[in-house]
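Appendix B, Record 12. Input sequence as logged:
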Amino acid sequence: MQLQKTIKKENLRKVVFLDRDGVINRDSPDYIKSWSEFEFLPGSLEAIRLLTLNEFAVIVITNQSVINRKMVSGKGLDDLHTLIKKAVTSNGGQIKDIFYCPHVPEDRCSCRKPNPGLIFKAKEKYRIHIATSVMVGDSAKDIECARNAGCGHAVLVKTGNGEEAEKILKGLCGTASDAVDAVKLEIPQGFKLLKFKMSEYLKNIVKLIISKI
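Logged structural output:
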């Protein structure tokens, strides 16, 4: 009888999940299909560096329907992600892993945000305490994904689709304060949305994540 080997999961004590397009890099209505179309948002490399220095494991979770739309191959997307990780590393940060959903909405999969499948996939690979993790996104789908997965915190940035998401989330969470600093909005089941009214970029909120979470 052959004994099955037990694979020990790496323990990640502090985890920040980042959306990709609109948070790390500029988004495009035509999708990001190659390194030549990829542009880091101002300060995003520095933001990831600061998270890394403060012992946060950065994991990217992103919807990439370009695969099933036949616009990019799986290898092409993997090659792009390798270049992104190299650029982050050369600037003193680290992306621990990247999980993506290749499906289009019509596929009705469990991994396309706002479904929590990508976060659950990360949890299968690593030992993560989801209830203390943070999700940073630019869309309502990112925030809903965090809530569906049971993340302790979610942060909305106003890059990408942030302005539109802000309107949607106001309806979901009640009226937000106009204060410049962080506002905690309580929604059901203890989930906290850390909402930064004036934070245009990821770099503007990293120090608040480090100090408050």
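The chain has a mean pLDDT of 82.
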